[in-house]
Design brief:
With 237 residues, the protein is α+β, with helices and mostly antiparallel strands. It has five helices and 13 strands.
Length: 237
């Protein structure tokens, strides 16, 4: 049984948002020792959910990078110095490798999920199945006619940082950061550096207001006018 104080603390952690930028470099510890540090996050630009953490293993695996699913991570905590991974070093060492210079293919994801025994990801199913946060559950039925090509919705938070941000009536600024829910690994807000347009202030835009990301143009498009975005920012302040 949890005390009232513990429940209150956990509830606050659930609704707290965390800066993605501040998680880079955070140490990662498996059940039997350290495995490296956080280098990047891959998110689904349709659901705005983190699908993988990219771990830089440093000298341990000769700098090899590996994917770690939120299924193995649990919750993010605001004051955490080390992110605990519910896997052994041997499991991570034998996991499928990725090439950081190429997109992650659906075929690689299926191989990865088979290796760890996680539910398969399918576009027709929520990322965490019937749960609201990552738990290991029976895999959903395979999607009919699914392909094994590149998943065009899987993107790097590091790459998107610095992209131009445009409202329906003009430029706003550049992507500076994302704010993530510590419970369900959903990117809730995008932090934009507005430059001289809005007195050099940062603006927080809910990801639900983002209509699309153009990777050819390095631009994030927001489904709102500049005046509306300013109004929301002023209310939040």
């Amino acid at each position: 049984m949890h005390s009232q104080a513990e429940r209150s603390f956990n509830e606050k952690e659930d609704i707290m948002l965390h800066s993605i930028q501040q998680r880079y470099g955070e140490k990662l510890r498996a059940t039997d020792g350290e495995i490296g540090h956080v280098k990047d996050f891959y998110f689904d630009d349709k659901t705005w959910t983190i699908r993988y953490l990219v771990a830089d293993t440093g000298g341990w695996l000769s700098g090899r990078q590996v994917l770690i699913s939120p299924h193995a991570l649990g919750h993010l905590y605001h004051n955490g110095k080390v992110l605990l991974v519910n896997l052994t070093r041997e499991q991570i060492e034998k996991s499928p490798s990725i090439d950081e210079h190429k997109p992650v293919s659906r075929q690689h994801e299926e191989e990865y999920h088979r290796y760890y025994g996680y539910p398969y990801y399918a576009e027709t199913w929520p990322l965490w199945g019937l749960a609201t946060y990552p738990i290991v559950a029976p895999p959903p039925p395979a999607a009919a006619g699914k392909t094994h090509g590149v998943d065009s919705h899987l993107r790097s938070t590091r790459v998107v940082k610095g992209y131009k941000v445009k409202a329906s009536d003009g430029a706003i600024g550049e992507v500076a950061d994302f704010l993530i829910s510590g419970r369900n690994w959903v990117l809730r807000e995008m932090l934009v550096e507005s430059g001289h347009w809005y007195s050099g202030k940062g603006i927080q835009i809910p990801t639900e207001n983002i209509s699309r990301i153009s990777y050819n143009e390095s631009t994030v498009y927001v489904d709102a006018a500049k005046a509306a975005i300013i109004g929301v920012a002023q209310v939040a302040a």
